[in-house]
């Protein structure tokens, strides 16, 4: 299927997919807790895509997460956005899910003095948690976080805008990660799954094209399986 759909995009775009996949990572992930300003949410998505972060976890306790298309510039279609909005305490549920997958929960807060972003280790997988624009991280995150980080500031203003904070943190950590000996790359199966998603997002009416592909394959003696057997999904 990947080979078939690859023939429907330009060689330049197909080469770009391979280039971007080589820099994609799940070693670092981002958690956004109750953001309510669309331009901030969208700017964070844009930064995640630029720095190679594949998974973004969106907690919706009080505020629904919306995207400002003019700011996001199409970045959501290249990312896996996982939303948490069906539990009594979505923050705790998200944290528990990430810890089960081996992530350290690293909360960003100017009030905590554990370490600066430059001092944070990237040896083990980590999830960066950014809180709401006005009040920051919730008490739940503060209680269950494994570590706290802050961005050094030398002026009178107490904190950065959330989208600026995310960009500064990701630049610092990704730069450190790329210089490390950590195996932060996606495995080949993960790359294949993402590549299939990106190809689908790049062509018109992919469902009809795939249906036609499997029907022809079945007629020619193939297994005729449906595209859904790949188990590909861009969201939870």
Would you kindly provide a written description of the structure presented here, covering whatever features stand out?
The chain is α/β, with parallel strands linked by helices and 236 residues long. It has a domain of 155 residues: 3-Layer(aba) Sandwich (Alpha/beta knot). The protein has nine helices and seven strands. A seven-stranded parallel beta sheet has the order 3-2-1-6-4-7-5, with helices on both faces. The C terminus is likely disordered.
Task: Give a quick rundown of the structure.
By secondary structure, this protein is an alpha/beta fold.
Largest sheet properties = 7 strands, parallel
Give the mean pLDDT: 85
What is the CATH third-level topology name of the domain at 25-179?
Alpha/beta knot
H/I helix tally:
9
Low-pLDDT runs of 5+ residues are 226-236
- Please write the CATH class name of the domain at 25-179: Alpha Beta
Distance between the termini: 23 Å
Count of strand segments: 7
Alpha carbon gyration radius? 19 Å
CATH architecture of the domain at 25-179: 3-Layer(aba) Sandwich
Q: In what order do the strands lie side by side in the largest sheet? A: 3-2-1-6-4-7-5
* Series of H and E elements: HHEHEHEHEEEHEHHH
* Structural class by secondary-structure content: alpha/beta
What is the assigned CATH homologous superfamily of the domain at 25-179? SPOUT methyltransferase, trefoil knot domain
Q: Which of globular, elongated, flat, extended, rod-shaped describes the shape? A: elongated
Strand content: 5-15%
How helix-rich are the residues, as a percent range?
40-55%
């Amino acid at each position: 299927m990947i080979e078939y759909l690859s023939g429907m995009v330009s060689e330049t775009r197909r080469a770009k997919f391979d280039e971007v996949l080589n820099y994609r990572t799940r070693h670092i992930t981002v958690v956004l807790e109750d953001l309510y300003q669309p331009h901030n949410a969208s700017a964070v998505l844009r930064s995640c895509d630029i720095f190679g972060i594949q998974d973004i976890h969106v907690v919706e306790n009080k505020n629904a997460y919306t995207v400002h298309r003019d700011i996001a510039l199409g970045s959501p279609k290249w990312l896996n956005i996982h939303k948490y909005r069906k539990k009594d305490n979505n923050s705790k549920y998200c944290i528990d899910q990430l810890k089960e997958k081996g992530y350290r929960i690293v909360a960003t807060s100017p009030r905590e003095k554990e370490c600066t972003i430059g001092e944070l280790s990237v040896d083990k997988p980590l999830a960066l948690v950014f809180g709401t624009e006005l009040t920051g991280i919730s008490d739940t995150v503060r209680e269950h976080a494994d570590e706290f980080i802050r961005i050094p500031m030398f002026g009178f203003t107490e904190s950065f805008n959330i989208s600026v904070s995310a960009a500064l943190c990701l630049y610092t950590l990704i730069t450190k990660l790329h210089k490390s000996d950590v195996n932060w790359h996606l495995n080949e199966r993960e790359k294949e799954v993402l590549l299939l998603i990106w190809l689908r997002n790049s062509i018109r009416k992919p469902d009809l094209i795939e249906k036609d592909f499997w029907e022809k394959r079945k007629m020619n003696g193939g297994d005729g399986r449906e595209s859904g057997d790949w188990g590909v999904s861009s969201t939870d």
